[in-house]
Automatic annotation (TrEMBL):
<keyword id="KW-0210">Decarboxylase</keyword>
<comment type="function">
    <text>Catalyzes the decarboxylation of four acetate groups of uroporphyrinogen-III to yield coproporphyrinogen-III.</text>
</comment>
<feature type="binding site">
    <location>
        <position position="342"/>
    </location>
    <ligand>
        <name>substrate</name>
    </ligand>
</feature>
<keyword id="KW-0963">Cytoplasm</keyword>
<feature type="domain" description="Uroporphyrinogen decarboxylase (URO-D)">
    <location>
        <begin position="149"/>
        <end position="165"/>
    </location>
</feature>
<dbReference type="InterPro" id="IPR000257">
    <property type="entry name" value="Uroporphyrinogen_deCOase"/>
</dbReference>
<keyword id="KW-0627">Porphyrin biosynthesis</keyword>
<feature type="binding site">
    <location>
        <begin position="37"/>
        <end position="41"/>
    </location>
    <ligand>
        <name>substrate</name>
    </ligand>
</feature>
<feature type="binding site">
    <location>
        <position position="216"/>
    </location>
    <ligand>
        <name>substrate</name>
    </ligand>
</feature>
<dbReference type="InterPro" id="IPR006361">
    <property type="entry name" value="Uroporphyrinogen_deCO2ase_HemE"/>
</dbReference>
<comment type="pathway">
    <text>Porphyrin-containing compound metabolism; protoporphyrin-IX biosynthesis; coproporphyrinogen-III from 5-aminolevulinate: step 4/4.</text>
</comment>
<comment type="subunit">
    <text>Homodimer.</text>
</comment>
<comment type="similarity">
    <text>Belongs to the uroporphyrinogen decarboxylase family.</text>
</comment>
<keyword id="KW-0456">Lyase</keyword>
<dbReference type="GO" id="GO:0004853">
    <property type="term" value="F:uroporphyrinogen decarboxylase activity"/>
</dbReference>
<dbReference type="InterPro" id="IPR038071">
    <property type="entry name" value="UROD/MetE-like_sf"/>
</dbReference>
<feature type="binding site">
    <location>
        <position position="86"/>
    </location>
    <ligand>
        <name>substrate</name>
    </ligand>
</feature>
Length: 365
């Protein structure tokens, strides 16, 4: 409340951008591309700005977060900025003890495992989001007609860190909890959906032109568990921004890794486009979505992906052939945004990323 909404096309200078056009199923004037983790350790200018300041602190300094967001856009000529932040920032803003430990990832002071732990979680306040809104406003003013993508963690991925207290491989803690203590799980996932939905909404209200929900670890779930214990919470997170989305509103992308079996269910959580990791060719992803329409009748939707990050270091000829293959497979979808199948590896040579962008832009849409 009280924040001016800039969601209609008349006031958004990004409406005709390649990214937004492709995400709405239109034909863009060039093939849009951006990279998950395009801001970060692959860039020497990032490492320099981050010297002496912790990851989460840097996210909460608006000028710094904005500058880090802009660095890869200037360097690579990508078709979008991805807001520099982290999925655990809503925890920090709600004053849940969390830090990002270099070389490890998000670590909580105390894992959230019991009904009492969940009941004690503080709610995220509107005022605490002001540094986020300020960073978005600064960034959007600099980006002009290039869209900014806002994002949040999906409830399962965020809750997985909260239950485990740290990164894990199999996510046994949250997967046990949803069966052993479904009420506790639902309360925790509802909290995470509110926090993430609120965080995403703040970014869109402040000027982000698209949103992405990261359910990076949803691939550890069976389809049945996803549908019963996770999809309703992801739908609740999307519902918090649904009034800003719709055909002329902000497109919403839903991404995870290892999600080949749950892509239609991820679409049906309320996404306008689905991000696919490198394990499934995009023409097969398109076939699966088309074959399994949702209750609303939607089958095929625009796709995002899915260059294999491993091939960034495989030599140019191998990489070029792979990227051309991804472009061809993605051309069957109603819209295609090029991206990696997961984040940029930290040791990636950034000049290779720039060359990939040039290659993609050289292929006529
Ligand atoms: O000091 C550093 O540079 C820390 C590395 C780093 C960075 C650059 C972390 C720690 N987070 C980020 C930024 C970040 N995180 C962005 C914005 C920048 C961009 O994409 O260009 C985004 C979108 C995220 C989202 C995020 N954080 C996800 C979802 C995306 C994904 O990679 O799957 C997840 C799972 C996290 C948790 C997290 N934060 C950081 C790390 C190393 C991790 C993963 C830890 C693990 O393996 O579980």
């Amino acid at each position: 409340a009280g924040h001016p909404l800039v969601t209609d096309d008349a006031t958004r200078s990004t409406a005709r951008s390649a990214l937004i056009t492709a995400l709405r199923g239109g034909t863009p004037d060039r093939r849009p591309v951006w990279f998950m983790r395009q801001a970060g350790r692959s860039l020497p200018e990032y490492r320099q700005l981050r010297e002496g300041i912790s990851m989460l602190d840097s996210c909460l300094q608006p000028e710094l977060a904005s500058e880090i967001t802009l660095q890869p856009v200037r360097r690579h000529d990508v078709d979008a900025g991805i807001f520099f932040s982290d999925i655990v920032i809503p925890l920090r803003l709600a004053e849940v003890g969390v830090d990002i430990v270099p070389g490890v990832g998000p670590v909580l002071d105390a894992p959230v495992r019991t009904a009492a732990d969940v009941a004690a979680l503080p709610e995220l306040t509107e005022e605490s989001l002001e540094p986020i809104r300020e960073a978005v406003r600064l960034t959007v003013a600099e980006l002009g007609s290039t869209p900014l993508i806002g994002f949040a963690g999906a409830p399962f991925t965020l809750a997985a860190y909260m239950v485990e207290g740290k990164p894990s491989r199999d996510h046994l803690g949250p997967r046990t909890m949803m069966h052993a203590e479904p009420d506790t799980w639902n309360a925790l996932a509802s909290w995470a959906a509110r926090a993430s939905g609120h965080f995403l909404r703040a970014q869109i209200e402040a000027g982000a032109s698209a949103g992405q929900l990261f359910d990076s670890w949803a691939g550890s779930l069976s389809l049945g568990d996803y549908l019963t214990h996770v999809q309703p919470h992801s739908a609740a997170a999307f519902a918090q921004v649904a009034d800003l989305a719709g055909p002329d509103g902000v497109p919403l992308i839903h991404f995870g890794t290892g999600t080949s079996e749950i892509l239609p269910a991820m679409r049906d959580a309320g996404a306008s486009a689905v991000g696919v990791d490198y394990r499934l060719p995009l023409d097969e992803a398109h076939r699966r979505l088309t074959a399994t329409p949702g209750a609303d009748g939607r089958g095929a939707v625009p796709l995002q992906g899915n260059i294999d990050p491993a091939l960034l270091e495989a030599g140019w000829d191998v990489l070029e052939a792979h990227v051309r293959g991804v472009i061809e497979a993605g051309s069957v979808a109603p819209g295609h945004v090029l991206n990696l199948g997961h984040g940029v590896p930290p040791h990636t040579d950034p000049t290779v990323l720039t060359r990939v962008v040039e290659l993609i832009h050289s292929v006529a849409p």
